[in-house]
């Protein structure tokens, strides 16, 4: 049972145990609500059989107080067992998902978009939170307590019990039969919501380009269609659920009518006492309350299947694992007959073999789409390769834990990611335990101090979401400062100086040459000027190595390298 609950509702072991406790609490709470009815039954029975004495009256008063206390205690217990433990479990679920996401390979993120993942962690978790706190335990409690009460009704009068209870299986059957329809409706509603969330996120991310191209109206019209689709799907889904739930609830109401009808007939032919009739009328008015709620809940619980499946996709996706200890001897990077395809589709790299030696600068060049970025990222195990091996100092990267491996790398990407935090903290990402003095020293090496001095609070200035208050060159200098601070033995540079003006570029290149001394450097560069000082050039074309060797050597050959040099020279001479 615990295993079923864990799997069905994406719960931790403790969460599943807490849910079982909540079932118990809800059952006791539902039964406690019947206590006043029993007391009333006894009171009326006394009244009909000759009146209530003062002593018995005091007893009934004490009984009322006892009912109040029992209901109060069970309400408190039920609240703690269902709500409080659910909120704790919800936190655990979100952290588990986030931890798993942290360990998943980038190939997973290629298949999933950001809004989808955000929605799983926030909206799906919230729905499951409501399901476990409000619906599941209450449903289980209602079923158990109603069954117990139903059994006891048969002891009073089986004919009246049948009249009161025939509606329960029918109502349940209607709701259960609707599960297929409801699941299909929920799936469609979720798809519409995801498409809409995607559209909104894309719109916000590309608002600058949309404005620049005067394409806002056309884009917003498309978005409008998606928003309307969500509205339509929500109405259809709501209607679909309502048809079944309302039908089931109406059937339940028929129970009161049949109790009145059958009771009236039995009373008329003298085979039922007035007291039993009165008690059944009292009971049925209370008996169906938890069931009505439960039926509504049943429909909602059935639809949580989708949320659980979406979480399962994250939780069951294989993570990148490996040795948690570095065993590399030196930091030579060796690609040996490497093949790679993104998401198992078309091969992007074929039979790539080369060595990037420690203490040397190895430059990756070639036409756009040739595979330069892919090669540099595979060196740091951003993805797992499909064939061949990549080693660092003899250590197979695919057998090393990615987080441990990352300790060997400083990476400066073309697209720098910055956080809405101070300049100081943005640079400290490179080395979490670095002192302020170390951070400032790294910033100075990357020539950040020139622009930081002009910021209102210097290094303490917040730089906006993704560094929106900084220029492209300034953002890149922060990224270079992070690499200085980390001071790892392998440096991956992806066109690191692309957004800098000529003056800054020279300064940064000076600093970079200090940073890369004695390190393994893999640099991606489009400009031939950047790579002329490299020790080795690897020319990638169509995912294969077209040429490799020292720049002077390649300049002698009639190949892609010389062709690119010539083209660069021609474009250098170009004037407006
Ligand atoms: N995340 C991805 N998912 C699927 N295909 C990708 C992905 N990233 C790159 N590709 C494809 O892999 C091939 C190599 O891309 P890569 O970015 O490595 O080339 P590049 O030489 O760095 O190009 P550029 O010089 O334009 O940056 C291209 O055909 C590209 O479309």
How do you describe this structure in short?
With 576 residues, the chain is an alpha/beta fold.
Overall CATH architecture of the largest domain: Up-down Bundle
User: How far from one another are the termini?
Assistant: 75 Å
Any idea what the radius of gyration is? Answer: 35 Å
Query: What is the CATH third-level topology name of the largest domain?
Result: ABC transporter transmembrane region fold
Quick check: average pLDDT?
A: 84
Secondary structure class reads alpha/beta
What are the low-pLDDT stretches, counting only 5+ consecutive residues below 50?
none
Can you identify the CATH class of the largest domain? Mainly Alpha
Going across the major beta sheet, what is the strand order? 6-7-8-3-9-10
**How many β-strand stretches?**
10
Bound small molecules, by name, code or SMILES, are:
adenosine-5'-triphosphate
Question: Quick one: biggest sheet?
Answer: 6 strands, mixed
Give the number of helices: 23
Number of domains: 2
Helix content: 55-70%
The H-level CATH homologous superfamily of the largest domain, spelled out, is: ABC transporter type 1, transmembrane domain
- DSSP strand (E) fraction? 5-15%
Q: What overall form do the CA principal axes indicate?
A: elongated
